[in-house]
């Protein structure tokens, strides 16, 4: 079905519900949702690009027999009673990994889930965003115009709330249709393994050297200037957290990189740089220059290394010179995994993560038997269905390389 054939979905079937922003209203929702049965559609809206962190500013729920609820976690920040009441239900989310952390912050943690985006990936569907999936699978066109809005805005406009309600309006129907397709394709057991892995995943470890994600860092070629980037990044992060603003709204990455490249020797020189001339930046010139000065004074031994510490193999582009046997192994194994993925209509990265394959190719089991490769994959978090499809072929590729 094409978009031209789709029916526009413009408003929730039951009307736009009142927003739940106090405990009494939440108790009513809790009673309504816990007395119904079946899966629960769940979604969350954040204010990425506007606020510091990734907290939820709106949570949407829908359950057959319960209707839709729009919950303001600023007004009712502890949603653990609701999470407990729904603990035995299957939660239906789209791209669950994006929302699980902010839901956990307010006390909502699923014990089982169905991820419609991941289901679409396992089915090999070409477009797996919520809108395209609802369109291609159910024949409805969703309005997606407010996904990047500042959801910390209060009061939230009705137009935004209508959009948010529609995000869960058809999620259960989509889940049911995708489950049937997974069953018909012989992939439902794979999906169940993937969903269980999402539920049971440990919280992500804090990123090492998060400042190295500064856009444009590749332009910085010496350790002293890297120290400037690091100092400015942490100064910005501290102020952003204090003001509850997205760091990029406090100081753009381009300003950090330009300061590191220029290395201004006075506060006036820093203030004269184009990216620091704005009124907001002038108020904080002293803060930014103090960070630059601190980095300039650091002893050589305290400068950051040119490259980030990493416990894995080097980038594959360097393997041919550094360890040519590993390069041959990786190329052979990659070709086998791609072939298997194509045969099963899967994205390669959903069949086996590139990092898992690279690590195995760099330090292969000796001897590289199917069981040994399977265990190496298992230690890296591969699911059993992935191991069953790939271990024998990768072991054969390693042995022949």
From TrEMBL:
It holds the Pfam family DNA_pol_A_exoN. InterPro entries: 3'-5'_exonuclease_dom, Exo_C, HRDC-like_sf, HRDC_dom, HRDC_dom_sf, RNase_D-like, RNaseH-like_sf, RNaseH_sf. GO terms for biological process: nucleobase-containing compound metabolic process. It comes from the Bacteria. One of its GO terms (molecular function) is 3'-5' exonuclease activity. SUPFAM superfamilies: HRDC-like, Ribonuclease H-like. Residues 222-302 form the HRDC domain. PROSITE patterns: HRDC. This is Ribonuclease D.
